[in-house]
What we know:
- This protein has 376 residues and is of the alpha+beta class.
- It has helices spanning 21-38, 50-59, 65-78, 82-87, 90-97, 104-120, 128-132, 139-150, 159-168, 178-191, 197-210, 229-232, 296-306, 355-359, 365-375, and strands at residues 249-260, 263-268, 279-280, 283-286, 310-323, 326-337, 349-354.
- Helices cover 42% and strands 15% of the residues.
- It has two domains: 6-232, Hypothetical protein, domain 2 (Endonuclease III, domain 1); 249-375, Nucleoside Triphosphate Pyrophosphohydrolase (Alpha-Beta Complex).
- The chain binds a DNA duplex (11 and 11 nucleotides) through residues 56-68, 99-105, 108, 135-141, 144, 156, 158-161, 176-178, 201-202, 205, 208-209, 214-215, 242, 245-246, 274-276, 321-325, 364-365.
Amino acid sequence: MTRRKPSQQTSQHPPEACHDAAWLxxxxxxxxxxxRAHARDLPxxxxxxxxxxxxxxxxxxxxxxxxxxPYFERFLTALPTIADLAAAPEEQxxxxxxxxxxxxxxxxxxxxxKQIVEMHGGRFPAEFEAxxxxxxxxxxxxxxxxxxxxxxxxxxxxxxxxxxxxxxWQFDGDPTSRxxxxxxxxxxxxxxxxxxxxxxxxxxxxxxxQVCLPRGPLCEACPLAALCPTRAEGLQDQIPRVKxxxxxxxxxxxxxxxxxxxxxxxxKGRDGDRWVGLWDFPRFExxxxxxxxxxxxxxxxxxxxxxxxxAIGERLASWRHTVTRYRIELECHAARVQSRELxxxxxxxxxxxxxxxxxxxxxxxTGRKLYRLLCx
DNA sequence: AAGTCGGGGGG
DNA sequence: CCCCCAGACTT
Length: 376
């Protein structure tokens, strides 16, 4: 058991040295007894199909279980095999992802499916080196897929187990630091059994998410409480250390519903934009005190970006939307084109769509919200 | 080591 | 309002 001072916690001994083999065996066996009695019945736990496990792991990145479930089932109904995914148009994949966020996950999943068809005959690879080379799959996701789908003894480390291991090893340094990562990955490795790594890994995450909570962990219900040094010293609310978060900066956006003959002008996000690959209504950032209706500078920007002059009309709606570290004050206006066509050059891909066509397009969340307003 | 990428759940 | 989430990737 570790009894070193916090300042020395991150150095000197490898994590294996902190807990002996008997302690590790006790953790595994108590954990498995608890898990077999308390595991939630989740869709991706009913199968070991590598495609299903892979899809669930990608969707679950930075996304909570309850949010993922309906997306997971709808996605597999639409694209039941890796070959189906590889052959699907990107806009269908993004449409299935719409609302989940982190859309690059969907694009990399799609790209990886094509690679699997090309390089592995459509069969998900079972070797770590091949798996981690696929786009969108890092050390955690590779370990999760390999251990769950193929029973490969690969360690995992993610939000739940960072917290669990920090407490079990009483690590009070910064978990994201080099030393923290080394210690925590070492802990994950030390806990691995020779067989059944997938079950252990899922049990560790389940305990972390259901019992070893960020604040107010349920130590009374924890099967590992008697083995936990942090619990013994009552430090479970100080470990792991929390990092302060960056400030949120407010911005204003203008969203234009430009209609011409029952069609609306949409633009597709490209590299450098926020929602790459998703369609959006023409969107412009406003200066601080800018009034939408009488800014000639704004009119120039709009005309140059859309390829012709636009007359801004009445306000349709306004609301607030927070993304990453920006709080967007959104103002939606109706608008009409003044020339017969927008014929100037545009750096974005932009096209006119009917409402029926927009229904099938991948949009970002605010774009979808404005679409619904226009349908009323 | 810090930024970026989204959106919703829940206190 | 706040914190948090089965991370990966770039700078």
